[in-house]
Amino acid sequence: MGSSSRLTQVAREIDLQIVTAQLNSPERLAHFFGQVLQEVGQRVRLVESLDYRADRLGSIFSYFRRNPDEALLYARTADHPADQEAIANRAYADCNGNGNVESGDGWRFRGRALKQVTGRANYRAFTEDHAQMFGEQIDFEAEPDLLETPRYAVRSALWFWHANDLYSLADAGINRAAADSITAIINRGTDSYEQRRENIRRLSEAEVFANVCRFPSLARASKTRNEKRCLDPCCSLAIGPRQSIRGPNDL
C-alpha cells in the first residue's frame, strides 16, 4: 500500500472518530498530527524501524549502554545489516509487560501504529478498551500485527490520545508548554521535542484544520457501524490539495 493511499485511509478513519476521540478542534488536531508526524514520518510508517548504528543504540536504549559489545554485534555496520529482531528483544525486555530477552516479546510487541504502541501491557490495555470505545472485540495482544493496518493504527492512536486526556493539554493552545507536556507523555525520553513543536506550529499556521468544528456536542453525533461522527458538514478533515500533511523532514 502506497503512502498516499495509507494517508487517505488514516484521514477517513480519524474523520469517522473525530468526536469520540476528542479531536474536535483545530488546536487538538494540530497537536495530534504534529506528534504523529514525528512518530511515523512522511511515509506514514506504521511499524517501528530498529535499523540503528551502534552509537545510536547506546544513546536510545539503556540495555545497549550497559552492553556496548552487543550494540556492536547487532547494530548496522559496514559489514552487516542491523538485526532488528535481536535489538527489539533486548531493548524492550522486562518492561511494559514484556518478558525477558528469550521471550521474544520485544520484537512481537515493538512499536506500531500512529503513536507507536510498544510493549505487551500497552497492547493488552488497548484490547481491553477497544470494545468499549469502538464497539468491536479484538485481541491485539494475540494479533499485534493488526496495528500495522490503517484502521487499527488510527484507533490505537485515538485510544492513547483519549485515555491520557491529551486533548485537554492541547486546549492550552499552540505553544511550547502545551506541546512539551504532550510529548512527555508520548515519549518522555525523546530528543525530538523541538521537532514536534515545529510540526505543530507549521500545521497550525497553515490552517490545515481550519474547517473542523470547534467542540461539537456529542448529542449531534450519530453511530455508523459502531462509530460516532459529527453531523455538521464542517466537521471533517477534508484535506484539500493545498492542505497536505507533511512529514517532519519537509517542515
Automatic annotation (TrEMBL):
It comes from the Bacteria. InterPro entries: Cell_Wall_Dynamics_Protein, Lysozyme-like_dom_sf. PANTHER family: FAMILY PROTEIN, PUTATIVE-RELATED (PTHR34408), GLYCOSYL HYDROLASE FAMILY 19 DOMAIN-CONTAINING PROTEIN HI_1415 (PTHR34408:SF1). This is Glycoside hydrolase family 19 catalytic domain-containing protein. It comes from Paenirhodobacter enshiensis.
